[in-house]
Amino acid sequence: MVITQTLAGQNSVYTWCRDHRLHHRYSDTDADPHNSKRGFFFCHIGWLMHKKHPYVKEFGKMINMSDLQGDWMVMFQKKYYIVLYPILAILLPVWVPVYYFGETWWNSLFVSFFARYVCQLHGTWCVNSLAHLYGTRPYDKNLQPVESWFVSFLSLGEGWHNYHHAFPWDYKAAELTMHFNLSASIIRFFERIGLAYELKSASTDIVASRVLRTGDGSHYKMGTEKGRAAVTTWGPLHPLNPTYNTTLKAPDAILKPRELTPCS
Ligand SMILES: [Zn+2]
Ligand SMILES: [Zn+2]
């Protein structure tokens, strides 16, 4: 898994996880590395071009990383990332078409590295941008992240983001796994071959009580007429739930900046 993660070229597992944990803990505040309250450009790509907000550094140090620090594979990749990245993310994907299909090095470099990398990165970044800005909040209307079938389509299942932030420990990162959720199937495959274990998932009761307690009413089964009527749709409809195709505006209350107080 560390090998496939290196192929994706999205920084080391250690750095990725630290930023991700920080993102969940302080979502959409100044301590969130890709704070979506700073606008679409910033949370999509701008955060990687910009100096980190001092809170990202300060609060980042408080994130518990002991589990990954105890994993030799993660620490090995972190230490040698500068060597592993060019070999696995550039050289290997460029070499395969040259060796096996007789492509030229230039063609292979532009398609297998540049084109692949650009498409893949934008798909992932849409989770931080689109899936925090445009969509419904059937599980928790107090969280800024939304459900977006379009982002799930682009990112192979990572766009059911209101659910993911409501139940971050659920391996599926979505209530359902049958539409645009290839990531969940891949994790289950790894479980079968013994590389993933103790997968946690929210029970239907837990999900139902959360939907009824904090949802915005747009849930495909447990939503309300009023909640669904508030949703405006665009583009082709999601096969299961038309309310996932939305440009629903976030309630003003959750768009307001949240004050942070340092804690452990
Ligand atoms: Zn997450
Ligand atoms: Zn998020």
UniProtKB/TrEMBL annotation:
It holds the Pfam family FA_desaturase. GO terms for biological process: unsaturated fatty acid biosynthetic process. Residues 7-168 form the Fatty acid desaturase domain. It is a multi-pass membrane protein. GO terms for cellular component: endoplasmic reticulum membrane. It is found in: Membrane. It comes from the Eukaryota. GO terms for molecular function: iron ion binding; stearoyl-CoA 9-desaturase activity. The histidine box domains are involved in binding the catalytic metal ions. Belongs to the fatty acid desaturase type 1 family. This is Fatty acid desaturase domain-containing protein. It comes from Spodoptera littoralis (Egyptian cotton leafworm).
